[in-house]
Description:
By secondary structure, the protein is an all-alpha fold. The protein has helices at residues 7-19, 26-38, 44-70, 76-99.
Amino acid sequence: MFTSGSRGNANLIYFLYIVAPVFFQTLALIGVVMAYLGKGKGDALIENHYRNQINIFWKMLLYCVISSLLTFILIGVLLFLAALVWYIVRIVKGMQALSAGEMVENPGSWLL
């Protein structure tokens, strides 16, 4: 098993996030709990990725709630698709940075 605060644990969380839409976001919930539990136990690189993962979770949840509310005026579906693209891009960028041993640029950003 990966120790919280390890690179393997951060990779596992990114993997859980990427497959989460297939499993109705249950795996994303597990991933964010793992990120919160690992926070404060790793070096600066891992902490940066945990912060990125936590931000991805909460922002995607907010985007989903907003797009659900806007579905009634037919713009919610487009907003959800845009949010899904944002979600996937943020995860892929995070995975690439982690595998290269780099920090995520602007982990708190609302943009790509």
